[in-house]
Amino acid sequence: MKTIIISGCSRGIGREMVKAFFAMDGMKIIGIARNKTALKSLQNELERDAGDQTSEFIPVAADIAQSEPRKKLLKHLAQLGLKVDILINNAGYLKAAAFENSTEAEFDRMFSVNIKAPYFLIQGFLPMMQKGAHIVNISSMGGVQGSVKFPGLAAYSSSKGALSILTEALAEELKDREISVNALALGAVKTEMLQEAFPGYEPPLNAIEMGQWIADFSINGRKLFNGKVLPVSSTTP
Description:
With 237 residues, the chain is an alpha/beta fold. 42% of the residues lie in helices and 22% in strands. Strands 3-2-1-4-5-6-9 form a seven-stranded parallel beta sheet, with helices on both faces.
């Protein structure tokens, strides 16, 4: 049984990733999110549709952007004696704002969720990771150097750019342990977060399609890639 840890799985792509892994059979999926109600709803949906599935879903409510809740989460999961095969840093925060109107509070929230949380989650889970483990960081096309940039996303794109660089640095640092680290720079996907930031915009892909694709990449991508920031976008944005 493979153990998969996914952050930000209460809605959107993260929720669809959980469902995609659950359908594969033989998976133990640890789903992390702040929203307890949404996690319970996901758990009920999986149990209702499980049939003969042998996968297991363990919901864990925590705000990984905050130091103390994150430490408690890591301590709790360490006590379960987990051997982690895949860690997907999917949780993200996006709020569009013109640069001159952006606030320090929003900047701090953006960087706490999008780069600080993945950094310290990886550090905390590292002792639980087996040889052959795969860390997948969900970045953005906005965080890729040379890609088209859009007004209102200065803080968000900067935080995702930092996540991309962290990916490259950790791949080298963890190479001797045979732990692979890759980032997927996603383009626009129809999620609640995107709709909240850009009302009325209709992206070309939905969360189900992207969730299934990322789940497959997380299992098979380490065979071909390490230390790569891979664009996953059919359009701009």
